[in-house]
Amino acid sequence: MVRFENVGLRYGAGPEVLRDVSFAVEPGSLQFLTGPSGAGKTSLLRLLFMSLQPTRGLISVFGHDVANLTKDAIATLRRRIGLVFQDFRLIDHLNTYENVALPLRVIGRAEANYRSEVIELLRWVGLGDRLWALPEVLSGGEKQRAAIARAVISRPELLLADEPTGNVDPTLARRLLRLFVELHRSGTAVVIATHDVSLMDQYDARRLVLLEGNLHVAD
Amino acid sequence: MSLIEARLRFPVYDLRAVRLAARRVMRARPQVLTPIVPTQSLSGKALAAVIAIMTLLASLTLGAVVLVRSSAGNWQSQVAREVTIQVRPVEGRDIETEVRRATLIARASQGVAQVRPYSRAESLRLLEPWLGGGLALDELPIPRLVVITLAPGAKADLDGLRQSLADQVAGASLDDHRAFLERMRQMTRLAVAGGFAVLALVLGATLLMVVFATRGAMASNRNIVEVLHFVGAKNRFIATQFQRHFLALGLKGALVGGGIAMLLFAGAHFLSTRTSEVPEGVAWLMGDLSLAPEGYAGIIGLVVLVAAVAALTSRWTVHRTLASLD
């Protein structure tokens, strides 16, 4: 699904933040990406999401060499990847329903065509009664569930989450993690970037550990 | 919540309950999807107001150009239908006889509708504005005028008339006002060119404003642009969202500006037909301030043009900005 071979990354003329990173994300797999703050987790996720180009090495996403892709081709590939942020990144003037439906709106599907799908998913994540609420009136947990719903509404093959439990309390963090595990069980490959060891200890999943720009894989 | 729990919570076989719940939800939902680029921003309102002012100025300029052009056209055709014979006093010749002869020759000429010789008294009255009244002008050799009105549509033989007058009337010359008409045409052309230059400047200023407004809107909506990128939106889609937003803004502003201009022209025409208060200079230059239908059509065209300029400029700016972001 995704393959990194000897990938290196540096910003401008600075030092390499990632060095000789090689790993693969298999379809339907679950892995944690961990490491101390500043180790390069977010950079690695951005490479996975193709919003950064590596300085060296090869990245292949869904069988395509990222270096040879046009902007439009990258946008098309991104539709097969769901992305969840620590700070939710919901659009403030759109209600929960519209935020979650955004990926479907972007690919040009008619609203009548996806309405029931979005409502069903929002009920599934427990936001059935918050469909028309704006993000400003949602709690942190509700926002994160809406962000997760947005990331999975188009049934992505790969789900990337950057510190998805960073802004919620431990109880909600456990609930959100269960949500990711459910998605993984339904066939989606999931990569969760987190430095919360107690959270990772709850599930026996592969760990990709970043230390000073080097990646260590613990199966 | 597990998938099993979810299925238990929302049983799919209870179609009536699902239908009722869906109906309840849909009753509460807003009727239309919110535009992705927020419409109710202060900068958006300010831009619509500025576009309205610009369109008003451009429409007034366009209307004035159309008025000047049509009035000048009328004036020119009126002047062009008139030629004048001037008979200067020649020593030893009776000027009254010469004027009569000139009148007869003019009447016999091809394409002439009317010939009106000015009497000595009338000629003196024409000179009064320059020389003042109450002067003893009897001894002065005053030239006399014969005004000829040409038949509309007919081809007058002015060269033949000029030749006949030169041969048969002492001191007669024919003036077809060619030099005056040429000066008027030049003046009209200058006024129209000035009007179009103002229009071009207004459109240029609108274009620049939209460029800055689009950049501002993109900067303030950077979060939205990023999220759209993350959910797989192509640059074309993002540009279309901004273009739609600025088309609506441009259309709103231009409609207000163009609408006010049309009301002003209609009001000016109404007042000019109801009162005699129109200043003489304005009346001379622009007639009864009646804007021809093509003037109103031009203003409507201007409204569409301004909206299109706003939309296309924003699209171009978004594409450039996105290209620099990638």
Secondary structure layout:
The complex is a heterodimer of chains A (219) and B (326).
Chain A: E1 2-10, E2 16-25, E3 30-34, H1 41-48, E4 56-61, E5 64-65, H2 71-78, E6 81-84, H3 96-106, H4 111-124, H5 140-152, E7 158-162, H6 170-185, E8 189-193, H7 197-200, E9 206-211, E10 214-218
Helix pairs in contact in A: 3-4, 3-5
Chain B: H1 3-9, H2 15-28, H3 42-80, E1 82-87, H4 95-108, E2 112-117, H5 120-131, E3 144-150, H6 158-168, E4 172-175, H7 178-220, H8 222-230, H9 235-274, H10 280-286, H11 293-325
Antiparallel strand pairs in B: 1-3, 1-4, 2-3
Keywords:
heterodimer, A: about 220 residues, four-stranded antiparallel sheet, globular, B: about 325 residues
Can you offer a commentary on this structure?
The complex is a heterodimer of chains A (about 220) and B (about 325). Helices cover about 35% and strands about 25% of the residues of chain A. Chain A has helices at about 40-50, 70-80, 95-105, 110-125, 140-150, 170-185, 195-200, and strands at about 1-10, 15-25, 30-35, 55-60, 65, 80-85, 160, 190-195, 205-210, 215-219. In chain A, the strands form two sheets. A six-stranded mixed beta sheet of chain A has the order 6-7-8-3-9-10, with helices on both faces. Chain A starts with a strand and ends with a strand. The model of chain A has no long low-confidence stretch (mean pLDDT about 90). Chain B starts with a helix and ends with a helix. Chain B has a four-stranded antiparallel beta sheet. The relative contact order of chain B is 0.15. Chain B is built from eleven helices and four strands; from the N terminus they run H-H-H-E-H-E-H-E-H-E-H-H-H-H-H. Chain B is of the alpha+beta class and about 325 residues long. The interface between A and B is large, with 42 and 31 residues.
